[in-house]
Amino acid sequence: MVIRAMHIAAVPLLLALLAGCAATASKGAATNRGTAQALVDEATVMVEDSLKEDKDGRVHRLIGEAKGIMIIPAIGDIGFIFSVGHGNALVAARTDNGWSGPVFMSKSSVGWGLQAGVSKESGLLLIMDQDDVRYILEKGAVLSGKARAVALNAQLDVDQTPEFYESGAIYFVGERSGLYAGVALNTGGFSNRTNLNQAFSGVEGGSPETILFDRQLRPHGAERLLELLDKAASESQKNEKDGTEVPSN
Fold first, then answer.
1. Where does the record locate the signal sequence feature (predicted)?
2. How far does Cα 19 stand from its chain's mean position?
3. Across the strands, what pairs with 71?
4. Exposed e or buried b for every residue in 173-189, given b needs 16+ CB within 10 A?
5. Looking at residues 77-89, what average pLDDT do you find?
6. 10 Å Cβ neighbour count for 249?
7. Is residue 16, in this structure, part of any structural domain at all?
8. CB 93 within 8 A of CB 130
9. Is 100 inside any structural domain?
10. C-beta atoms surrounding 131 within 10 Å
């Protein structure tokens, strides 16, 4: 009888413990969702500003041709050679059904090679081949190896090592500062923030490949960002058909 009474008394305690765990998990998910949305909002402003300042239409053209974009809201001040800590990035991919994502990444340390006058800590990396997009998600490496960093009026081979796919150019668009040659983030350092991916997209486990490529999701809260990317691509195609496309050199 005493043992049974102890079991009965333990039931409310167990239920309270489970409720507490659920509340903690729910609070964590809400926090992750809020963090993800703040990053998306910041990235949206960056893309919007870059497109507004694109007087000659070249950034529109690049977005229209790109297979992916990494948006870097904040990493740190950039000099000619520098190393800073901490930063966030968002990655979206262009599929046959339009732009999908974004997914979230972070970097604990950053090393850049010799720059051609980069002065801003944030910018857009336009990735012209899907293999490179997948490589970034898998390896956490950006512009390391045989992929070339290309400015609008210059081209520079960077870090000729065999570990990055030789499959196309990657362009850097500095926020409010135009395009620059020679941008080279060193191998590694970026990691997927699957907790933010899950909270923002609803995909269990937060796999970036699932979100971007398998399910090609356009999560609630990213509508404006994806609309800007879709519109930039469509305007570029329209200008090309009209014969008004600005030469890239």
1. 1-24
2. 35
3. 90, 124
4. bbbebbbbbbbbbbbeb
5. 47
6. 7
7. no
8. yes
9. yes
10. 15
Domain annotation covers residue 248: no
8 Å CB contact between 170 and 157: no
Strand ranges for 30-144 from DSSP E? 68-74, 82-95, 98-112, 123-127
Residue 120 lies in a domain: yes
- Tokens standing for residue 110: 């950053």
Half-sphere exposure of 122 (CA within 13 A, CB side): 19
Antiparallel, parallel or unpaired: β 148-150 and 169-174: parallel
Q: Give tens-digit pLDDT for 122-174.
A: 678 888 889 889 988 987 765 544 445 544 333 333 433 333 334 456 777 76
The pLDDT tens digits for 191-221 are 899 999 999 999 999 999 999 999 999 999 9
Tally the domains of the chain.
1
Hey, what amino acid is at 195? Answer: N
What is the rounded distance in angstroms from the CA atom of residue 85 to the CA atom of residue 99? 30
Closest among 105, 177, 175, 181 to 143, alpha carbons compared: 181
Distance in angstroms (rounded) separating the CA atoms of residues 129 and 9: 62
Closest Cα to residue 30, out of 214, 205, 198? 198
In eight-state DSSP terms, residue 210 is: I
Binned at pLDDT 50, 70 and 90, residue 38 comes out as very high
The rounded Cα 237 to chain-centroid distance in angstroms is: 24
Task: State the pTM of this model.
Answer: 0.72
Q: If you search the block for the tokens 């659920």, which residue do you land on?
A: 22
Place of tokens 């519109």: 231
Residue 190 Cα distances to 17, 89, 176, 236, 238, angstroms: 36, 9, 24, 31, 36
With both helix axes pointing from N to C terminus, report the angle between 2-52 and 194-201 in degrees, rounded to the nearest 10: 90
